[in-house]
Structure formats: C-alpha cells, structure tokens
Amino acid sequence: MKKQWIVTFIFLLILSTGPVQAAPQRVVSLAPSITENLFALGVGDQVVGVTSWCDYPQEAASRAVVGDAMNLNLELLLSLEPDLVVGDSTLVQTHLTRLEELGVPTFVIGPTTIAEVQASLIELGEAVGAKEKGEDLASKMENRLQELTAGVQRPRRIRVFMEIWNEPLMTVGPGSFMHELIVLAGGENIAGDSPTAWPVFSEELVIERDPEVVILTSYNLEEALARPAWQVTTAMQNGDVYEVNPDLYSRTTPRLLEALVEMIEILDATGR
C-alpha cells in the first residue's frame, strides 16, 4: 500500500510540473547585441542565422545572414528551420509578429538601462537553456559596475555632448543607456532635460550649453572638427572631441562597461 502511494505521488508530481522544455538548438538572432549575448552565454553553436550587422564575435560571420536589423529575408530565415527567433523590441516587430503567425517561436528583449541589460542576460539565458550562465554574466556586470563607479570622484560634473548622428543632429537623453554612461562616468549630459531617449538636438543649443567634451559615435571626426559654429565651444578649443567605437556604446551587452571605462578615462583627461 505504501509503495503504491509513493508511485501515485511521483506521478502526480510529474503532472504538476509539466513537461521539461528542451533548450532550442537552432536559434536566429535579429540584432547584433543579441548575437553577441548569445555567444557570451555559451550557445553560439546553436546560432544558425544572424543579421548583416552581427560582426561580434568573429565566429558570427560564419552564420547565415537573414537580412539587416530592419529588413529580413523571411524565406531564407524559415529555410533555416529555427526553433527560436530572438529579436529586439525596438526593431523588426512586424516581422516577429509574422513569424509568430507562422508558428515560429519568438523571444523579444529590449533593455534600455544597464540594469535591464543585466536582467535581459538572465532572461535570454533562461530562454536558450543557459540561465546559470546568464546569472553569472549579470553578476559579473554588477560587480564590475560597482567597482568602476566607486572610483569616480570629481569636484563637479563635466558637460558632455554625445552625438549619435549628424544629419539630423541626434543625441541621447534620459531613458537611454548611453545617457546613463555619461552620468555614471561623472558627466553632465547637456541634453539631460530632453523629453525623449534619442532626441534630435539643435546646433544652437549645443553651442549655448558649451560642452567640455564631445563624443562622436558615427566615425565623423573630420567633419565634426570642421564645423565653424562649434569652434567657440570649450570642447573644440581644448581638443576634447573624441571619436569612439559605436559598438561599445550602442549595443546592450556586457561590453557596455568597456564603454564606461573609456568614458571615465576621457573625462579624467578633460582640459589637460
């Protein structure tokens, strides 16, 4: 009787927990940051498709290209027979909806802050069967972040303008992780009162607010240095205009902290 009760209990326990979901074995990534994070999670071997912008790590270049961050070749994507497609909530939403209609499993992430990047690593890790690795990456990010910010000591905040595009002139505002990088490094974002995370900004306002540091993220240093109206700014006069690797600053991956290291070093050197 006791043995029968134990067997019944185990059977009921299995029913209550439901079937174990197998980790996806054929994953398509629809954003460079997602591709980078999948490899960081140790599941790069499961990645069968990426976008043309997915250039890190180097192994990503050997995967099938299903389009860019905005346009997808759905026929090619479906031919890869993915059991999971991962997309960014700010991109290709229409395609993700279409894939769901076709019965293709999708997973969507869209972190906008460093804390959300950490959380997304855990969520993505869980979705691809690597939750523990995701938790480890998030924990290491947090420890490194605390270490970096603890060393930032400034008598005052340094005025910073971060340019993400020049025509139209676009910058970063509150609600974006790039704004957060400026603040964490001990800077004052001159667009810190913008109502949106990625605002179009006026040249006149840049000059009026006189940035001490200008950060360029679109490889246009020569063009920026030649702007006549900008020559009166403190950044131009002191030579504190920097062209940086946009991948470090714009991708929601653990490498954001490499951008923070660089930002801290730039602000440490301001005015020297």
Q: Which features would summarize this protein structure in a list?
A:
272 residues, alpha/beta, Rossmann fold, 2 domains, five-stranded parallel β-sheet, five-stranded mixed β-sheet, 12 helices, globular
Topology:
Elements: H1 2-17, E1 27-29, H2 32-40, E2 47-50, E3 64-65, H3 74-79, E4 84-88, H4 93-101, E5 106-109, H5 114-127, H6 131-150, E6 158-166, E7 169-171, H7 177-184, E8 187-189, H8 203-209, E9 213-216, H9 221-225, H10 234-238, E10 241-243, H11 246-250, H12 256-268
Parallel strand pairs: 1-2, 1-4, 2-3, 4-5, 6-8, 6-9, 9-10
Antiparallel strand pairs: 6-7
Helix pairs in contact: 5-6
CATH superfamily of the largest domain: Nitrogenase molybdenum iron protein domain
Number of helices: 12
Shape: globular
Order of helices and strands, N to C? HEHEEHEHEHHEEHEHEHHEHH
Helical residue percent? 40-55%
CATH topology of the largest domain: Rossmann fold
Termini, distance in Å? 84 Å
- By secondary-structure content and strand pairing, the structural class works out as alpha/beta
Instruction: Enumerate the spans where pLDDT stays under 50 for 5 or more consecutive residues.
Output: 5-20
Quick one: biggest sheet? Answer: 5 strands, parallel
Instruction: Supply Rg.
Output: 23 Å
Order of strands across the biggest sheet?
3-2-1-4-5
In total, how many beta strands?
Answer: 10
Strand percentage = 5-15%
**What is the arithmetic mean of pLDDT?**
90
CATH class of the largest domain: Alpha Beta
